Amino acid sequence: SSGINAEYGGANIIGDVLIHPTAKVSPTAVLGPNVTIGANTVVRDGVRIKHAIVLDGCTIESHACILYSVIGGGTNVGPWARIEGIPNNVNPNQPFAHVTNPSTFNEEGKLNPNITV
After folding, report:
1. Tell me, what DSSP letter sits at residue 13?
2. Rg from Cα positions in the chain
3. 11, 49, 76, 104: least surrounded by Cβ within 10 Å?
């Protein structure tokens, strides 16, 4: 495809980034830090990915932004989409650090609801 560099030599890499040899990454994409791109994944023009894992067989369309997330295998992220998780930093010296571990049981001894995404 136009704008895709199979060797990803032209992509803008910041910090630790692991790209599978079969992935195709546009030279205008910006990846990193802390990014893994899985096998047979396509990352198109203008994409920004940081602190994220993109599993095998995904297509990340032009100008999408993925931050602090895991993208499941075979996912198609549309153009201009923004997917943003919450930074999980347990270093108390950083201003945005927070650890939230709600109790399994409430004050009445009943099980608290739990949502896993």
Report:
1. E
2. 17
3. 104
